[in-house]
Amino acid sequence: MTPQIYSEKRFGVNSDQLSINALSIIEKLQKNGFDAYIVGGGIRDLIKGLQPKDFDIATNCQPNEIRKLFKNSRIIGRRFQLVHITFPNEIVETTTFRSGKDKNDDSMQINDGGRILRDNVWGTQEEDVFRRDFTINSIYYDPFSKEIIDYTAGIKDLKSRVIRFIGDPEQRIKEDPVRILRAIRFAAKLNFKIEKRALPAIKKYKTQIADMPPSRVYEEIAKLFLLGNSENSFNLLKELGILQILFPHTDLAKKKYDTFFTNAFRDTDERYKQNKKLNPGFLFATLLWPKVFEESEIETKINFRKFYQTSANVIRRQQSIAAIPRRFTSFIKDVWMYQIRFNKVGKKSINFAQSLRFRAAYDFLLIRKQLEPELEDSINWWTEFKTANYDKKIKLLKSKRKR
Ligand code: ATP
Ligand code: MG
Predict the structure, then answer these.
(1) Residue with CA at minimum distance from ligand 1 atom 5
(2) Range of the domain at 205
(3) Spatial CA neighbour of 233 closest among 293, 283, 305, 308
(4) Which atom of ligand 1 has the smallest separation from the CA of 41?
(5) Of 176, 195, 212, which residue constitutes the final position of a domain?
(6) DSSP for 97-157?
């Protein structure tokens, strides 16, 4: 197959836009006689005029060889082996071309349902192109020859704004159902449409997402919601009936939660734009809150133990789909438990307002208002209290007691 080859100039792309680290890796690989390219988001986003999140490299150099060439590197992954090359400010993923062909040995494993369990058979660039997920993700850029290489008409799809699977969508989704989440992620990020041809296949196989390793699903959810496109992602997931699969115990798609989530995600996306930190714990605390809220009857009677058990249960059930790392589950529980302390105003409130996770808990209280408008008085009081000096705090506590 002959690819379309474009000059970088055509798209206003040049090597200065790459990270120095990625550029230096490509240079070294090429000096040692290998082919090496920027592939995926690193070139896709540049052509679109966006700042790439990271720069992935594809090469015909094999992992062990890459390891030898770069002291600061390590091989990671079993299912899909690749090399992380580490710099003080960046990790560059360097991936060896795959052939996608089953050699009937350990390096490639496909189960009866067509799912790829292991994909470590090395191949040529031409083969590598066709095992990638979408046409817009299979564009290669050589910053030294200044060429952009496109085998799958990815450039055309970037222009016409389509997420198009390479090959038959049904087969590609069967190979890896997580690709459904990836399609949604890129559609949400770029404001593209997923090709019509893929919709029946998505519908047919979407439940298989639940069989995928929870660690991968967690990573995808985090990317869907923490990279500035959470509102779009949420709407697309809802439209395609995938929210229920990712959050089977929480009916996030209920109409009455619409504004709650819309507000929360607009906030999240705004924070992302302002380069503020986004905590995955806060995200999951928000996503799972309606369930905790409904099950614990937090407003009618404050039963600390029941509330704690509900919280723990909701998190535990979610873990079977998406493995939320422990450091975040403890954060989520704290943020939820602290909601009770907003109701129990007293002397201890002074220490509470200085505690480690108070700020997050307070931000969460603000988000709750959408579902529980009656919180307004409490929110106003705490807003004043948290910034007040000690004397003012005492006064506020006294006035609260009188009421
Ligand atoms: P991002 O901007 O989020 O990094 P990306 O397109 O670079 O987007 P990565 O997850 O970094 O996505 O993966 C790099 C490239 O590897 C993709 O562009 C795609 O070509 C290929 N790829 C990644 N995951 C898969 C998958 N599950 N199936 C097929 N190809 C994949
Ligand atoms: Mg990438």
Answers:
(1) 41
(2) 167-212
(3) 283
(4) 7
(5) 212
(6) PB-----SSTTEEE-TTS-EEEE--B--HHHHHHHSSBGGG-EEEETTTTEEEESS-HHHH
Query: Strand, helix or coil at 373?
Result: helix
Within 10 Å of residue 390's Cβ, how many Cβ atoms? 8
Q: Answer for the pair 98, 86: CB distance below 8 angstroms, yes or no.
A: no
Is there a single domain that holds both residue 55 and residue 200? Answer: no
CB within 8 Å of 119: residues ≥ 6 apart: 79, 80, 98, 100, 108, 131
Q: Could you tell me the CATH number of the domain that includes residue 322?
A: 1.10.3090.10
Give CA–CA dist 378/2, Å, rounded.
67
For residue 192, the CA-to-ligand 2 centroid distance in Å is 18
Ligand 1 in contact with 152 (CB < 6 A)? no
The whole model's pTM is what?
0.95
Angstrom distance (rounded) from CA 312 to CA 294: 14
- Point out the domain boundary residue: 125, 160, 195: 160
Which ligand has the minimum distance to the alpha carbon of residue 41? 1
Question: Which residues touch 236 (CB under 8 Å, ≥6 apart)?
Answer: 184, 187, 188
> Are residues 236 and 146 located together in one domain of the fold?
no
Report how far residue 284's alpha carbon sits from residue 324's, in angstroms, rounded to the nearest whole number: 8
Q: Do 248 and 382 fall within a single domain?
A: yes
The neighbourhood of ligand 2, an ion, using CB within 5 A, equals: 40-41, 54, 56
Per-residue pLDDT tens, the chain, 403 aa: give them: 899 999 999 999 999 999 999 999 999 999 999 999 999 999 999 999 999 999 999 999 999 999 999 999 999 999 999 999 999 999 999 999 999 888 778 899 999 999 999 999 999 999 999 999 999 999 999 999 999 999 999 999 999 999 999 999 999 999 999 999 999 999 999 999 999 999 999 999 999 999 999 999 999 999 999 999 999 999 999 999 999 999 998 888 888 899 999 999 999 999 999 999 899 999 999 999 998 988 876 655 667 888 899 999 999 999 999 999 999 999 999 999 999 999 888 889 999 999 999 999 999 999 999 999 999 999 999 999 999 999 999 999 998 876 6
The CB of 40 under 6 Å from ligand 1? The reply is yes
Q: What is the tally of structural domains in the chain?
A: 3
